[in-house]
Amino acid sequence: MEAPAAVLALVLAMTAVGGAALVWFFPTWGAVRHGYEVLSGALVALLAWGAWGSLRAPVRTLEGTAQAADGERALVLLLAMTILTALATLVLAVPLPPVLGRVLGSLGALVGLASFVPLAAIRAARDGAGGLPQGVVELLLGSLLLGGIWAGMVLGHWYLVERRLSNRYMVLMAWTNVAAVAAGIASVLLSGRNPAPCEGLAGPDFEACARTFSPILRIGSMTLILGLGVLALIALIAGFNVKLAREGGRSIQASTGMFYLAVILAPAAEFAAKVRFY
After folding, report:
1. What is the model's pTM?
2. Domain boundaries, position 158
């Protein structure tokens, strides 16, 4: 399943799962108006839906192989996450008990997390790919990086809605961003155990793969260099975020601007890492 669409599906799925975990389990629940969860939940549902849509074509290429069933399970779980998260958002947007929305959203996050198992199982038989455990760990690390940074940007914008909100939550999110950077570094380094795109292929298979991936990405350690270089910039941003979040006030807006930069950079780091996943 070596295809750019599969890599895009992984990045979208990791962002959705990581973001969902921080929406439904972060201490902001009950401290901010539920419009925050409505906004975040709607975005998570769209991310999960995008992951499902991006994965459909690559899964069709698995027909007749041992991994076909894993691909179908991953699609079902991503679609279930989309539906559950959308229902959670709807419940919070209408006069229904908010706890029901949180339960549905939490179930959606857990279902999305479960999708990592079949997604990793698809590549488990690939030589040098580290098997199922490594695949799941790589996806977990990537979800912390992408979800943590995405949630930080959304929360920073919410301070424009609730201007009296304590900076405590932004400080917690800033430190989550620091942990996300560490997870991203581990994700990129762990991806080095996977073969580079097109490695080990020959003849028509190599020619088909070469038409799909840039020659730069097929150079041995280039994806690692790209990923770590981008993460170095995100680490610098994370340091500024902690300082700005502690200051509170208008500095929250500056911290949000920093998260903007990180949101642009983080997917690039994970694309570099996950291009070697399958």
Report:
1. 0.90
2. 4-274
